[in-house]
Amino acid sequence: MVTKKLQKSFKWIGIILLLTIHGEIEINSTEQLDFLIKYLIGERGDEINVPEDYFSKRALLRSLMNVRPPLEISEEFLKVQDEFLTAETLSKDLTSVKDIMEVKGRIMLWQGDIVTLKADAIVNAANSKLLGCFIPQHNCIDNIIHSSAGVQLRDECNRIMEMQGEDEEVGKAKITSAYNLPSRHVIHTVGPAIPQGMKPSDKDKEDLASCYRSCLEIADAHNLESIAFCGISTGVFNFPQELAAEIAIKTVEEYLDSTETSLKHVIFDVFGDESYRIYKDLLFGE
User: Fold this and answer.
1) Keyword Hydrolase: yes or no (predicted)?
2) Residues 160 and 130: beta-carbon distance below 8 Å
């Protein structure tokens, strides 16, 4: 007869086996989430009501990460955060460069979420501070990339900017690790911002082309083979989508034709259907 004591022992052995990965005990995602939220609230010294349900808690964690300045943080926090974000990344429908079907030479077109793309580098449309978006849960690409990568991305960007000593110029680029993203690197570039109701000037057009060239050059400097571009300046910076796509494609084609490059794949990643139509028409003439 199996005693209650033995049943309890078997239960705990089963739990330990379920929670053990490569010999280490892993806490579940809810416990990780609670730990991360508690840490960041404690760091701020605020009193914040923590919601009960998982999805509201997850939104709160993203908000706390978004507003957090680049400060030192404990190794324990980073370990739990990295396990949590990596698990989230692996749970998504990830896409490898080799799985992209729409190809024109070394140029590829892909419609999807850039933070699910396994490439050597993805491009982030940053602002001149290069520290990511501080607006809680903002839907810009800068916020999405930083939220998925983890707090280390802002810290690394901050070290770069402290060494530089001034805001990032429009049209330049910097490279960092991608941390908890499926890509290896993030290349940050600041595109031209067009005032509402205005048309891009010739300088704006050249600045946008410079963004693409700078990203390609820094990818080559690091011997990367694949790079994925978002639509630089076409969001809150108001650059017209079709004109931006024309500049992007022309600049990339000229670079690939004229440069001894390590790049084998240059991906234009689009999210919306209209952006996809624009790029498809320009690339494939359909």
Assistant:
1) yes
2) yes
What is 117-160 written as a DSSP string? EE-SEEEEEE-TT-S---STT--SHHHHHHHHH-HHHHHHHHHH
φ and ψ of 95, to 5 deg? -125, 130
Measured between alpha carbons, how far is 121 from 103 in angstroms, rounded to an integer? 18
- Pair of tokens at residue 275: 């952006």
Backbone angles phi, psi at 120, to 5 degrees: -60, -35
Domains of the chain are: 4-68 (no CATH), 95-284 (3.40.220.10)
First to last CA, the chain: 74
What pTM value is reported for the model?
0.89
Task: Name which of 187, 146, 169, 183 is nearest 64 in CA terms.
Answer: 146
279 touches 243 (CB < 8 A): no
Question: What are the mean pLDDT values of the chain's consecutive 10-residue runs (286 residues total)?
Answer: 40 37 58 98 93 97 98 97 97 95 94 98 98 97 98 99 98 98 98 95 98 99 98 95 98 98 98 95 87
* Amino acid sitting at position 81: Q
**In this structure, are strands 107-111 and 102-104 parallel, antiparallel, or unpaired?**
antiparallel
